[in-house]
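Contributing new records

If you add data, match the layout below exactly. Sequence lines come first and carry their own label; structure lines follow with theirs. Keep one chain per record. Anything else will be rejected by the validation script.
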Amino acid sequence: LKLQFLYLIAWRSAPLPSSRTMSSKGAAAPAGAPAGNIPQGTQELTVFVQNLLQQMQGRFQEMADAIVNRIDEMGSRIDDLEKSIGDLMQQAGIEEGDTPAAQPTR
C-alpha cells in the first residue's frame, strides 16, 4: 500500500503530459520512468522515487537560487534609491532630520 501511495504521489507530481512518455499499454508514464515501463517492483519503484526526489531537489535549488538573486538585486536597488534620495536632499539643502515627517507638529 505504501508503494502504491508513493507511486501515485510520484505520478501526480510529474511534469505536464508533454514530458511524459507513453507505455506499451497506452498509459502515460511519469517523466523519468523508462519508456514503455511503468515501475512495478519494489526496487524499480525505489529507483524511480529517488530519481524523482533528485529532480525535485534540483528544481527547488534552482528556485531558491533565483529567489536569493532577486532579493540581492532588490537590496541593491533599494541602496541605490536611498543614495539618490540622500543626494537629492543634499542638493536641496535638507538635512536628514529636517524632513516634514520628522518635525513635531504644534
